[in-house]
Every structure is written in C-alpha cells, then in structure tokens.
Structure prediction request, 211 residues.
Amino acid sequence: MGRVERRLFEAWLVVRRADDLPGEWVAHCLDFDIFAQGNSLTHAVEAAHEAIGLVLADDLGAKRDPNDRRAPQSFWDDLYDTIAQSQPIKGGKFSELVEDEIETLVSRIVVACNRVCDESKVSTPIMFEKAAASVPAHA
Amino acid sequence: MSARFRDIARAAARFEIKVVPGGKHNRKLVRQGYRSYTIPAHNGDKSEVTDPYISGLCRNFQIDEPTFRKLL
Prediction:
C-alpha cells in the first residue's frame, strides 16, 4: 500500500426545501457547484457529502483543481443575503436540527479527502468527513 | 421542473454523457474532457431529480439548458 495523502477542503453548503418536489430537500455546495437531494434535511446533507467526496476523488485523480468548480456569482450573492438574514445556531449538529423551524440552512463544511498514492497510480479517496456550524434562515 | 433519473440519463446520453456507479445516494455522470458530475439516485431509475440539479448539470457539461430540457 502506498503513501496516504490527506487534503482538507472547506465549502459552503446551502440546503433548502425543493420547490418542485414536495418533501424533498436540495443541498447545493457552492464551492464545487454540486447538488444533492434527500427526503429530509439530514438526508440531503449526507447525500451532499457523498457527492462532494465523489467529485473530489475524480478531480484529484485527474489532477484537476476542485476549486475551479465554483458556482456562478448569483448563487454567492444569494448566500450572502441569506447569511445576513439568518440567525446562527451555536454548536449545531445536523442531526439535532428541527426541520419545521428551518427555511434554509447555510453551513460551512469541511471535507477531508484521503487518497492512496504510489509511484504509478492514485486511487480514489478512502474517507471524507464533515464538521459544521449551522445557520438557519427565517425567510 | 423536476425530471426522472432515467429521463435525465437518456437525455444526457445524447451528449455522450455516461452514467457510472457512484455511492449510496448518487451515481456519476461522466463525459470525455469534462469534470464528472453526480446525480441523485436514491430510488434508482425512478428517482425524481429537482430542477436546480438539472441546471447544474448543464453548467458542468456546458450544455445549452433549453436544448437539454427539450429532451426530457
């Protein structure tokens, strides 16, 4: 087994109820312009972490900079507006959030991407993890 | 407007985008010369995929969005 290389990526995640699918939540990672969805807020966040891990794996394996995936500026403008109208949750954990009280969740997440390297190849990441402070907006 | 996974996959195939295995919640779309993109697939081919996702897919693969939507 080769050397394990670890990189940390920070990203903004915005999670909202889907306008077009009742009961579904949509998570958008702005830094990598990746969407995920789930039938609960927690489910959407979990799916987003998986999706981010998958694209990071591909980008790093292809020696591409994942930070080049940024979402268009309009999404960032919405993010800043949402944060300005939001109230922070101190030490919030996704699993402890009450969905009925949340219109939009904005969170800074950390994704740790491990990959195994040797002289001839780079394998896919073997782990990613999450940590976050959560901020629900009351639109 | 949302669309089913299988319809998105069929439309994507017109642009030489392939669906490959991903993880527990997502599969991946790959196209030669482009970065990969994930697609929600909780319920397999019947999965309903939200509108913002379809826009993101078109951005990632530099596909004209109205053209893509006509294929759904």
